[in-house]
Amino acid sequence: QVQLRESGPGLVKPSETLSLTCNVSGYSMSRGYYWGWIRQSPGKGLEWIGNIYHSGPTYYNPSLRSRVTMSVDKSKNQFSMRLTSVTAADTAVYFCARGVYYAGSGSYHESWGRGTLVSVSS
Amino acid sequence: ETLLTQSPGTLSLSPGERATLSCRASQAINSNYLAWYQQRPGQAPRLLIYAASTRAAGIPDRFSGSGTGTDFTLTVSRLEPEDFAQYYCQQYGISPQTFGQGTKVEMK
Question: A114 — contact with chain B (CB < 8 Å)?
Fold first, then answer.
């Protein structure tokens, strides 16, 4: 059974870059599925950030596209996310997830990590 | 982007009762690409239903989904103690995918 676990700093300063990694176990990312990030904050609820396929195609939420980058490291069976120029509005619990993606539309998320709280504050 | 409005905001019920949760979209969802998730406090969301009516693996058959177009429903036929939680709908038929604001099912 696939398991996902997020890791990264719990505190980031405003204007800096938030970097998170999701370690995948129990399933080889190279076999398929899309891999994504979703965040949850009291103010905005659940918000999809983006998805990446093991071979590289990425799909980002237009509201974050100018600031987000995702990548895959197949040798480590993990994927990562970078969000630049963060503000207090980026404070949230960040989840990584495995998704079933439909071309031209989006994905549902069938397995989730436990989430990691990231606070943006000086 | 597509707005999903869930109602009611809170549902107060007793174990054994039937729960009916609504999710209304601001535009018709392509191919009924609508999912439902359950979230308990301190936990990640858990996929219950996808494609509007298909139960995810391991989900009890007391959970059922229905609907098409802009109106979707999640029904829990008989509430078990572990079903008292927050529920979210998500559409993935129109990019960008979006989530509803949630319905809390609380014990009366």
Answer: yes
Which chain B residue has its CA at the smallest distance from A101's CA?
B92
Tell me the mean pLDDT in the region A84-110.
Answer: 93
Q: Rounded to whole angstroms, how far apart are CA atoms B34 and B49?
A: 8
Separation between Cα atoms, residue A84 and residue A66, nearest integer Å: 9
Nearest-CB residue to A61 (from B44, B91, B96) = B96
10-residue stretch averages of pLDDT, chain B, 108 residues long: 97 98 96 96 96 97 97 98 98 96 97
Taking residues A22-45, what's their average pLDDT?
93
- How far away is chain B from the Cα of A30, in angstroms, using its nearest Cα? 22
